[in-house]
Structure formats: structure tokens, C-alpha cells
Amino acid sequence: MTSRFTGGTVEINNPSPTSGSRFLTLPKVLGVLVGIFAVTTIIFATFYAIEKNKSPIIETPTTFVTTTPITITVTTTPITTTVTTPTITTTVTTTPAATQDLCLTPYCIKAADYLIESIDESVEPCEDFFNFVCGTWIKNTRIPDDAGAQQTFNMLTHDLDYNIVDLLSSSPSSEIVEAVAVVNARQLYKSCINETAIEADGVDPILSLVNSEFGGWPILVGPLWDPSMFNLTNLLIALRKYNNNMFFRVVTSTDEKNSTSYDIEVSVKTD
């Protein structure tokens, strides 16, 4: 509302309500726009910060080479190895794998000594492997007068025979109960070397065995021989029980392609 004095008269004017309202709403509109702009700015700033944090970070690889002193202490079996660094100390205890499967019995040591003595170390193995392995054995081995050659198997067979004779000739120990087969073998051996008893018995034990086990002998029986009672197969079987191979040789041997299995070999007797 405004007052005006003109020509001694006072005039009072009331402004219209519509005009006043128009001037009052303008600041509100400006405030709203400013608020929207501020919110939009904050949102865009937030999105920008998020996208910036998502960007990949590429780091240059760095290689560090560190050299530290190592101290190794070795003792006897079991082996103790101590590795010492400025920051780490590790103790490892192991048993040598080589000694686990190493045979140190008297028999193994004797066999190893025999093999070593057979080697000729003066021979280059890449040039003459046979003489390198067997050279010393060939030089030291003598051929018997009653043989045309000598080989390891013959020597082992003779050694085995001598060992068996020593075992059968020895008196049984009172502290050990021997098997029945060992007792019978010792008695058989003693009867074979008892020449006095053999001379006294004569040929009667042999003739009794031929007649009872082998069906008799036509030369000795003469006219009383009955051919119908003779069976060649049964005779060969009976002779085989006494380790006599008449026509065929039957032995058990190791399979040449598989050392864990055994074969029965049947061949023609040549000796």
C-alpha cells in the first residue's frame, strides 16, 4: 500500500494481490534451480570418483635378488643337515637310501669279494668288457687234468658236493632237533661209505631191489622170465625215482623270459 499527497488531498493506493505474488515466487524458483544444480553436481562428482577408482592400476614388476650365506653341517648316520640363513634355520634328518638295501652279511661280503677279484681293472671296459669282468678269473683258474674245460658252474658244483659231505660227516648237534630228511640223508651217506658192511652183504641187496622194484632182470631169471609182466613205462618211472634218466632228461629250470617262474624241461639224454 502507498500514499501520495497531491493538491492538498491524500490518496491511498492498494496494490493488487496478483502483482505482489508474482514478485514473491521468483526467489523461490531461483532457490530450487540452485538446489537442483548442486545435487546434480554432487551426483556427477560421485560417479566420477567411482569410475576413477575402477580404472586398472598397472604396476611395473620388480625382481629382487638376495644372496644369503649358507652353512651346512654333515654328521654320521643318520645324516643331520643344518641350513642357516640370517632369518631361517631348518634342520633335516634323513637316512641314506643306499644303506637301506645294502647287504652286509658274511655271505654277501664274500660274494662281493669274489666278483671284485674276478675283475681285471687294467682293461678298458668300453673296449673289452668281457676281459674287464672276467680277466683276472681266467688268469687264476686252472683246468683240472681230468677235464677239458673249467667253468664257474662246475666249480660251484664241486664246492657244493664238498659242503654236503662235510655236513653229512659231522655229528648231529644235541641242541638242534634235525628234520627227518636230514637224519635219513646222514644215515644213507654213512651206509654208502661203510665198505666193510658192503663187502659182507655182497650183491644180495642189489638183486632184491631189482626183483622187487624193477620187475626182475631177464638175464638173471632165465627161462622163468614172463614177458607179459614187463612194462617199460613203469620201469622208467621206477628208475626215475632213483635219479636215473634212461632215455629222457627231465629237469626243472628257470624260465629264460621270466626269472620268477620255473619250467619243466624234457630233453633227450645225451650222457
UniProtKB/TrEMBL annotation:
Domain Peptidase M13 N-terminal, chain residue ranges per copy: 125-266
Keywords of the record: Membrane, Transmembrane, Transmembrane helix
UniProt GO MF annotations: metalloendopeptidase activity
InterPro entries the record matches: MetalloPept_cat_dom_sf (IPR024079), Peptidase_M13 (IPR000718), Peptidase_M13_dom_2 (IPR042089), Peptidase_M13_N (IPR008753)
Biological processes, Gene Ontology terms: protein processing
Keyword Protein biosynthesis attached: no
Segments traversing the membrane: 29-50
Domain of life: Eukaryota
GO cellular component entries: plasma membrane
PANTHER family on file: FI17812P1-RELATED (PTHR11733:SF167), ZINC METALLOPROTEASE FAMILY M13 NEPRILYSIN-RELATED (PTHR11733)
Protein name: Peptidase M13 N-terminal domain-containing protein
Native organism taxonomy: Eukaryota, Metazoa, Spiralia, Gnathifera, Rotifera
